[in-house]
Structures are given as structure tokens and as C-alpha cells.
Amino acid sequence: MAIKKSELYSSLWRSCDELRGGMDASQYKDYVLVMLFMKYVSDRYAGQPDALIEVPEGGSFQDMVALRGDKEIGDKLNKIIAKLAEANDLVGVITLADFNDPDKLGKGKEMVDRLSNLVGIFDNPALNFSKNNAEGDDLLGDAYEYLMRHFATESGKSKGQFYTPAEVSRIMARVIGIDQARSAAQTIFDPTCGSGALLLKAAAQAPGGVTIYGQEMDNATAALARMNMILHDNATAEIRQGNTLSAPEWTEQGKLKTFDYVVANPPFSTKSWSNGIDVDSDLYGRFTYGTPPTKNGDYAFLLHILASMKSTGTGAVILPHGVLFRGNAEAVIRRNLIERRYIKGIIGLPANLFYGTGIPACIIVLDKKEADTRQGIFMIDASRGFAKDGNKNRLRHQDFHRIVDVFTRQLEVPYYSRMVPISEILDDRNDGNLNIPRYIESGDQEQLQDIEAHLRGGLPNADIDRFQAYWEVLPGLRTTLFADGDRPGYSTLKVPLDQLKAIILKHPEFKAYSNRVLGTLSAWVAEHTPMMEAFTQGGHPKELVHVLSEDLLARFQDTPLLSGYDLYQHFMTFWDATMQDDAYLVAGSGWQAGAQPRLIVDDGDNKSKETPDFKAGNKKYVADLIPPALMIARFFADEQAKLDALETASEAVALEIEELEVEHSAEGGLLEEARADSGKFTAAASKRYATDRLRALTFEQDSDEEKEVLQRYLLLLDKAAKAGKAVKDADAALRAKVFQRYAALNEEEARQIVVQDKWLATVQRDVTAEMNRVTATLTSGVRELAEQYAQPLPELMEAMETLEKRVAAHLEKMGFSWA
């Protein structure tokens, strides 16, 4: 039975993190990623002649597995890694992490246990890379991405710069046009490549392949980048170590080597960038457009990137917003670049997106090949599109898609994007300032109050016009809701506020609009249901999600009042949380086998945190593909209805007991002492008290009322116990039937439940939710407008005068004079 991908990766991270010991994540990642590397190359290349990586005898992951529990495991692991490194010119790449370091890994048994457990984490049958990337399944890439993101998150602000968020990397790849690359002879370069994440994401977008070059100053990070290139099937990528600015490794005949594509996420505002450089006579001619300030290297990196681009090259660099508007030397450079037409576009990103800094940044897109004809710079303000993710912000699927769509199509969207003429940028008012808010309004408009409406009543037509998007689609609805007022420019609301939503929903135009939306959804369902039902073992999940999500976006892109990007995000959120795991389960095991409940395995001290759906003896099971609720809805609706009735009856008895306890539990009440030691009512304590108290009252006179209450209380407690048992027994019987029914599921039943009741039902709920949002937005907007101007000033003054008279009359009765 295949394990869910999300559970595989999360358990991988939890296990690794628990073994970290005294190291921080920036150090521990070296051990984990070397182990991942050894596992990958062993699975992929061991025993294969002429493989890209030679796995020598005594240098494989299986040799590591044999060392679990060995007293000399640390030293022997180093020797196994060294054998693989020596056979593949990887000394200094995979040999930097010392697996025999007692300061980091502990001494004696502690080291043995820690390393044995670390090896055991990767010795997982579900973590098999032998067919990685075959048929589009990049198990290694997904696992690597998951780990790197968590390492960057845990490493903290000062040590997380080795990783560029995947969403930003993909944006950069698309805006430089690398998806048009058709030959491996084309090249991509990252002068500050870190662990290589940005390079890898960009290169992956090139359908024809591309040759990778990179340079990284930190030795350990450069080694990590080389290792990652191999992990991602780019063993021929060339990564060199050194300071890009003072000692560039990629040169030809004394000049910088140039590339078709360049991407970079350099360290922000480096103060020591000029060390080792004669800026006045730079050997590589990088500062012909101006010399960056001594204490800030942002433009030094940008100019190095520009000099590394071919005359037909494109590039993208992440820099802080300050490069767009800072003055003095940077203003000179910026103006020269604008005049040369090298800047194609600027994309403003949300703050707190990157792991090395919390400040907002931007992507500057450079393009030499169209410089002669460029008349403007395309700007996007994407600063408001993100989701919170722990202590960081993260671009959502819809944010990435929207940025790429708008930039590649050069679409002008109000408050979001604009093609800004270079003449406007260089005029006297702007003088080369590229700060995005100068050219794109935020769209945050202050809500103005209409003084005349407050004085004389009526609803300002200007305020009603704020809902113009609705009136364009539903013109008759406006006349249904509003009538002309007693003077030009003002209207009145014709319908009661408490009926507003119902009137909108029943309006013929709204019904027609709703049918149009549902018709669009029905067409998408009809088009893609066969594809979903045809998906089976060996299928390609990433192809499935691409086709479904892109067509959903396309079909709803021009639907008024709804956002196609919002619906796309709903779908992708469902994919990330649920549907992706479903698709990989089916692709790995088929519909029937994939639908079977999975045994939860507790490995030693690593207890699973999963909540079981079923328990059978000491065994726990979870139903990943088809949750019990879907099985019950399909096959056991009658049993569920009976269970619901029993639960309702049980809740009714519980409510009677609660009412009796509230009535008689106050100080001096008949049930005051029925509480347990905790001060709360419990069935056992209450029953014990009531029984003992009744026994004590047997020979007492004048206790009929108390006896009646206690007898009723005992009767209710007994009734509640029986009702609770009935619920428990019925629930257990139902779950037993459901558990047995899984085994009897055939392929067609499993497919129908998942596709119809799970996948399509979720999409339909999401579209319905967006329709409800449309209704709610209009309803609440009209209600707020009506309430805002509900009472003009004369009415308020009259009401205040009436209240003043009432107060004065009350005071006069009390003997006070109201002055």
C-alpha cells in the first residue's frame, strides 16, 4: 500500500528534525542532504554500466544500511561517502559533512543511535528514487524542495539565504522567456547561485534543455549546489566556487563569459562588495554606466549580470526596492540603464518573502535584444498578493500565475500593472525614479462621506455607482433596488433591508447570471470527467492537475464578478491538500488497492501523529483515498440516519440533565454537592451522590420534593447512559461495516466515489462559495450604504430633542431642574 506523498515528506522532516541534536538547521542540512544524495545515486545508478554516476563497491547507500548499530558507524560512513566521492570527482562536495564529529553528533552510543536512525529514515521502501522523474513523477525533486524550504525556515534570518522560494524562481524563469529555449546549446548562469535552487527551477522550464553555469562564494554552499545539480539530473552543470565580483570564474579571453539567460538572488546591500576590485579600471568593464556606492553592492551585482548577458540575452535579478529610487551614484547608474533601454520590467513583490531578509524586494527584468525598440518599462505591483505561512509570507498559486500572465502578455490592469513610457520616467518630475507607487495607484480609495446626504437624506448615486461592476451585469437589479430620490444625484432604497438578499437571489438577472456560471462549470465537468475517470495506475498526476487547473482558469477568466484566479487558487489549494495525494495513490496502486485503509506504522520511538479512522485490535488504520464519510454516504445512508437519530436522542437527554443541574446547583440547591472533586458534574459522581442522598432521605419527613428531583435525576442519568451506549454501539457497528466494505470495493465503485463525490463535489462547492461571496458582497455593501445615510441630520436632531425632553421630565420628577 503506497503512502501519501505529503505524509512521506512531513514524516521525513519530523524524523530528521528530531535527530538534529546540538546543530542548527543550517548545519544539519549538510548531513541530511548528503544522506539524500547517497540514497538517490544508489537507487538510480547502482549496477548500471556507463551511468552518469559510478557507485563503486563499498560506496553505496546499502553499505550504509548495513552499518546500523555499528559502534564505528561514524568513521565507516565517512569512508563509504569518500569511496563514492573519489570515484566521481566529488571530493570536497559530498565529503564536507563529518559523520564522525562527536561535538555535533554526540559521543559513543548517542552517535551510534543518531546516525543509525538517520540512515533508517532514508531506508524507507516508499522513498525509492530508481524511477525518479520517469513519467513526470519527480519524487526526489518534491522531497528535496520540501526539505530545503524547511531548512531555510528553521535556519533563521542570517543563514537562510541559500534558498530562493520556488514560486519566485518560477516567475523569474518565465519572465526571462526560458520556456522558449529549444536547444541544450543555450546557456543559463547564476553568479550567486547559493544551493542552486533558482538555477534548477529556471532550467526546468526550458523544454529543449539548457546548459547550466553557476558561481557561489561560500565553499560549503557551492558544494551543496554541485550535489543538487546531480540530484536533479543535471550532472554536467558547472558550478565553481569564488567571489563573483572580485574573482569571476566564468571568463573568456580576459572578458566575462556571456550567457543567453542570467538569474540571480544576490545578497542585499553588501557593504564590502568592492574588496579586491579596482573599480576605476575594472578589468571586465562592468561599471561603464557608473560606479556603485562603496558601501552598497546592489548595483554592482546588477551591472555584473548585465555584463554577463549576450547581446540577445535576458536576465532577472532580485534586489531590494531601494535600487529603484535611491539617489547619488545609484541614480546615475539607474538613469543610464533606463536611457539604454536595458530594463524591460519591474515586479514589486510582497515583504517578508525571502529567508535572508524581511524587507520587500523586486524582480528587475533585463533584456538586451529588444533594447533598441523599447519605449517603456512594464511595471507590476504584486505586493498585496500573498498568504501567511508561519512567520513568512508566501506567493500563492494564483499570485504566481497572475504575475506571469500579466507580464508575458504585457496586460495593463488597473491598480496592478502598467506599461510606463520611458519619456514619463525621465521627465523632470520623475527624473529616472522607478519607485512603483509613482506609476501604479494602490487602489485603496478613502471612503468619502456625502455631507448633503447626511443633511438632507437620500443615497448618493456616486456611492451606488461604486457597485458599477454589478450593474453592468445586472442592470435591472439596480432599478429593482433603488428609485430616484427627491433631488438629482440621489436615490432611495425601495426594498426592506431584511429582504435584500432574498430579492437579489430571486431577481431574474441574477438567476440568469447564476445559470451562466453553473453552465460554465458544467461544461468544465463534462469536458474533464472522462479524463479524471480514465486516470489510473501509472498515470501522470502533474499532467492531470495542469490540464484541469489551466482550463478551469481559462473558462472563468472572463466571467464577470468572479475571479478566475480565485477559482484557480481554490482548485490548487485542494490539489495541494488532498487531490495530489489521491492522484499519486491511484498512480501508484490503482483505484481499488489505493482505496484500501492504510495501516499506521509506529516505528520505535517515532510514533505517528496521524488520527486513525479505524481500530482493529492493536492496529490502527487511516483511509486516505476514500474517507469513511464518503463510504457511508454511498452505502450506509440508512445506518447513518439511525445513528443520527440516536445521537439526537442522546443530546436531548443530556440537555435535560444540564437544565436540571443548572436549576438545582446554586448555593443551597438540591444538587449543589453532586459535583465531583473537580467542581464539575460527572455521571459517576452525580449518580453516586443521588443514590446515597436518596438512601439517606428514606426515613426523613418533608423531603418529597428533594426525592422527586433526585429520582428524576437518577432516571435521566440512567437514560443518558443507555443512550450513550446505544450511540457507541451503533457507531462501532457502522464503522465495522464500513471497514469491511472497503475490501469489497471494486475499481468502478472506488473511481466513482473519488471522482464524483470527492473531486468534483469539492470544485462545485468552491464555485458555489464564490457565488455566495458575490451575493454577500453586494448585499453587505448596499446594507452598509443604506445604514450609513439612514437618518439625516434633522431626524437625528429631532430624536435628540425628544430624548432631552424625556431626561428633563425624569429629572424634574426627581426634584432637579434641567438647565
TrEMBL record:
It comes from the Bacteria. PROSITE patterns: N6_MTASE. PANTHER family: SLR6095 PROTEIN (PTHR42933), TYPE I RESTRICTION ENZYME MJAVIII METHYLASE SUBUNIT (PTHR42933:SF3). Residues 137-446 form the DNA methylase adenine-specific domain. Residues 10-122 form the N6 adenine-specific DNA methyltransferase N-terminal domain. This is site-specific DNA-methyltransferase (adenine-specific). InterPro entries: D12N6_MeTrfase_N, DNA_Adenine_Mtase, DNA_methylase_A-5, DNA_methylase_N6_adenine_CS, SAM-dependent_MTases_sf, T1MK-like_N_sf. It comes from Deinococcus irradiatisoli. Belongs to the N(4)/N(6)-methyltransferase family. It catalyses: a 2'-deoxyadenosine in DNA + S-adenosyl-L-methionine = an N(6)-methyl-2'-deoxyadenosine in DNA + S-adenosyl-L-homocysteine + H(+). GO terms for biological process: DNA restriction-modification system; methylation. It is an enzyme of class 2 (transferase). GO terms for molecular function: DNA binding; endonuclease activity; N-methyltransferase activity; site-specific DNA-methyltransferase (adenine-specific) activity. Its EC number is 2.1.1.72. Keywords: Endonuclease, Hydrolase, Methyltransferase, Nuclease, Restriction system, S-adenosyl-L-methionine, Transferase. It holds the Pfam family N6_Mtase.
